[in-house]
From TrEMBL:
SMART domains per the UniProt record, alphabetical: POLIIIAc
One Pfam family per UniProt: PHP
SUPFAM superfamilies, alphabetized: PHP domain-like (SSF89550)
PROSITE patterns noted in UniProt: TAT (PS51318)
Protein name: Histidinol-phosphatase
Amino acid sequence: MSHEHHHHGHGHGHDHHHAPEGVEGSWTDPEADDPLSVSRRGFLATAAVVAGAAAGLGGAASGLGQGVAAAGNPLESINPYDGRSIFLAGDHHIHTQYSPDAQYEVETQVANGKKYGLDWMVITDHGGTAHQKLSIDKITPEIEASRKAHKDMLIYQGLEWNIPGAEHATVFMPPGRSTVDILKAFEAGYDGSVLRDRGVTGDYEPYAIEALRYLDGQVRNKRTEIALMFANHPSRQGIDSPHEIRNWRDTAPRVAVGMEGAPGHQAAGIPLASGGPGRARGYYDRAPGEASFPGYPLESYRTYGGFDWMTATVGGLWDSLLAEGRPWWVTATSDAHQVFQDTRVQGPLDYETNGTRGPAVESGAPISTYGDFWPGQYSSTLVASLGRTYVDLMKALQSGKVIAVHGRLIDGLFLRVRGSKNGDARGVTLGGRTWVRRGGDVEVQMVVQLAGGENAVGDRPRVAKVDLISGPVTGAAGDKDTFTAPQTKVVKTFEVSRNARNLATFTHTFKNVQQPFYVRVRGSDGKQLDSAGNPLIDVVTDADPWQDLWFYANPVFVDVVA
């Protein structure tokens, strides 16, 4: 994946929400009367281009779906360490009055995100028939207005996609001439709620695969420069089965790139005794249903230090993907619908008729049953981007230069992984891939940027422990429903000195390396750990998110060559 600085021509001043009549693959295609014709026609129109592009793929691009050991040129580094990237904080999961269960104006969410230090945000209202037909056209000018009012913020228009056969996902693209058309066509053809409304029955999983192919086709056909998908709250209902996640990743490795490592709705865990909702962090208080994957244990339906079970379990589902050499990234978001202690309630309009609830209405008193934080108030996805542009930021997300952080536990992490004498001396950073000759050493250097100020509740958080986690890359699992990686473990735990001021630096060397492996880093405030130093399962009704802070950084893969 190259990291040249891209200058892209997506100006924001022009009108994005009126497609010319009869554009093939757009919502205004006059022949689009079959429920799937919009997306199918758009996809088929690009099929020849896709086939041609696929035939010409080589190197790192083809390796994305093959696992590290088989990928392209083994001496090619991905995400080389350069020290030039800047951390941009953001949130890819935010709702407005254009969702039936939310209430805020776009500008309210953006202004709060800015207040709490965010640099980028994705507006992701729920997919559905009313949203597709009514809401997109109403929200588009509001997003444009917020972009003009906040020129220092990157404000993306996206969708919370009801994945056919599974949970929800964020889907988004940079601003561009076709962005709104693509979102409309994608939602019309492939949103699970829309499919249900249209009477589609049977196995939904193939629709999710076709949807991702469609998005990838839009990129290959240059209708958009990049498109990304992140699976949201993946363990909440147990319906994102391991094989579905693998299939999404394999189908469109440039589009389906990750999942929420930590769900939103973190304020829901604040206990009743503290004036909170007294629910579960993330509203992870569910149990298996008939659509749930039967292999998941009961404890998978809970959070651990606010993080999803798939992410928080050492040797769990996330690690099972990484052990195959599959790049798959984790994030942290607000999922902001209704914010804890806000005084407003939903507007009075009927959503199905209007595509909006209308502006929120003042109630006059703080509401303690709301379970969300404002964007950036608690959760943050830090992205090491080469520049403050829409496409640069998305390319950094796509390539895994990402840290998921709660409560401003840290402000950044400069990770450098490099082979000794007979390896890649420059090394690589978050999301990267490097190499060493068999028998060589690999050095991991972690420079943790400690919190430079107070978080949203006035605390200056302190990271107490940093864990270095590693496991071998063993290739594709024989069973696509595998969700364990038994050889992955915490290699070393570093204690952060209480005297540390701005930076804390740690180094570990893997000696005499014989097989491909990966490393990843997590850290905590050390307040709630089990005897092995892992996060505790969050107690439903009693889990103050501010008293249990974690960060999770994305992995680096190390290849071994003879």
